[in-house]
Amino acid sequence: MKVAIIDYYFWMNSDWAYLGADRLEALAERWNIRVRYRPVDLPDVYSRTGGQQLSDRSPERQAYRVLELKRWCRKLGISINTQPAFMCPNADLASCIVIAADRQGLPVGALYKSILHAQWCQDRDISSERTLLDILRERGVDGDRLISLAKQDDIVDLYRRYTDEAVAAGVFGSPSYVFQGELFWGQDRLEMLEGAIQRTTRLADS
């Protein structure tokens, strides 16, 4: 039987991706669905789809983001720093590390959550190679080897390809989930994503 797939496009600086990470994995396990992890260059996505980086948004929009984050943290029982010491630093190397780990068959879900946790809960700079190396070692991963792989041209090319694929799929923000060609934007759409999976499963069984 063919296993269904969710293409998961996310930014390695995405607070919202962090809030939805555990629920996405639980959903995939419930329905025996494979998640394909696709880190993307969100600033590039924004530039191609009309989005604005946080620092360029109006004070009102920035304030509402913080309000919504606090609401969702209360709802989910998750604690994050809504304004961390290192707010959305360059995530290219972190993204390529996740891609390299995936290519090596390592547990990507746990790894990318550890990097997001470092930024949003521990005030660590995930643009720093030293920080990323420490995170990898904390997870028992050969950090030197993985970072070396992450810098290779084939991994960097995949990062660019995933970003292009995201835009082609209609993605304009993080996190985004694509299931059978249907786009769901935001961790607050995971319930709707599960509804689509449930409908598809019922049709397949009928």
From TrEMBL:
Gene3D superfamilies registered for this protein in UniProt: Glutaredoxin (3.40.30.10)
E.C. number(s) listed in UniProt: 5.99.1.4
Entries under Pfam families matching the protein: DSBA (PF01323)
Alphabetized SUPFAM superfamilies for the sequence: Thioredoxin-like
Swiss-Prot/TrEMBL catalytic activity: 2-hydroxychromene-2-carboxylate = (3E)-4-(2-hydroxyphenyl)-2-oxobut-3-enoate
Start and end residues of each DSBA-like thioredoxin domain: 6-198
UniProt keywords, alphabetically: Isomerase
Enzyme type, top EC level: isomerase
Superkingdom in the source lineage: Bacteria
CDD domains hit by this protein: DsbA_HCCA_Iso (cd03022)
Family note: Belongs to the GST superfamily. NadH family.
Protein name per the record: 2-hydroxychromene-2-carboxylate isomerase
Organism whose genome encodes this protein: Alloalcanivorax balearicus MACL04
Lineage: Bacteria, Pseudomonadati, Pseudomonadota, Gammaproteobacteria, Oceanospirillales
